[in-house]
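Hello Y.,

Per our agreement to keep a running log of every chain we model this quarter, I'm adding this entry. I've kept the format consistent with earlier entries: sequence first, then predicted structure.
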Amino acid sequence: MSHSAASVSFFRWSRLLGALVLPLLLGQCSLPSSTGDAGIQDEGASLALNSESDAARFLAGMSGGGSARLAKLRQTPEWKSHQQRMEQLFTFYHKGHLPPIRAWRGETGATSPGVLFYPFGGPDFLFADAFFPGASNLVLVGLEGASPMPDLNALSDAEIFAGLRGITTSIDTVLGAGYFVTKEMRGDLESTRFRGALPLMLVFIARTGHSISSVESTQVAGAPGFVVRCPGKSVYFFQKDLSNGGVGSDKRLPNFVSSLGTPVTFIKSASYLLHTSGFSAIRQEIMNRSRVIVEDPSGVPFHYLKEAGWNISLYGNYTHPLDVFASNHQTDLAEAYRSGAYPVKPVSFGYGYLRNPATTSIIVARK
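Predicted structure for the entry above:
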């Protein structure tokens, strides 16, 4: 997702939504054990009962159960205004964004991967689920930390409503741009009590029709994270620097991803970081471990895929990147689109930084 020209929109574990719906009932819940280099560690925190789904629906502007406090808040003009705006935003998403993606996504040949790896993804479960609805395990990785989700029972109504406004504004941005803008999202949420990835992730999970079984804290390679478990699906998020300084020779995160299966890797709006020498280690891990890569031109440079003999299909059109990324222009990719050396098919939706379907480029590479 967006890096504001150099930094990715990332978030760390936020504490469970305890007392969003009921007083916190903490229990011990462990992740599947990992061995060797995968290195994932469970911190043992989990909410009892099913309050996570109730809380997610409240944040998403949806009807639902929960505590008397939530029922009372749902009757306020402020929450009803939040509900109305969320309905507008997600109606726009379901009628505008989603249908052409649904029509196209079979082109990936991998809509139900055992594991989807989404580096630079921030909390973008929404588009990950749109392209890969059958993914069993999703691993989103990011850099920017976030504060814990507070106990709603300890907040004033004014603090809750300010947080809901921040969530709405952030979602408005991502549905307009197609990716998170780090600086804007910080402004939307960091001044409220609903900071970070978890509130947005829960909204996206609820609004895509999933129920939540549990939310657990975890870490891998020293990187804090969380996993949201839904029936048939686990969504991981890790706060991790993917540069050579953060990954380098440390393969514990890539090993964890591979422990879930041979991944499909999904990349968009990645600030062309994988074009730089400073991200060569994670670029090579992606190429070594992925069976399919679905990306825009900000992902793995075209020439690496070509030289490694990947089976490449091109979609849309490519002429040049945004002006801010002009130095990352790929003349060989432009020539590949022009020459007919690779199959090129149209797309009817925007993807990545270039939202106009006439200028959108999608690269699907298969081993």
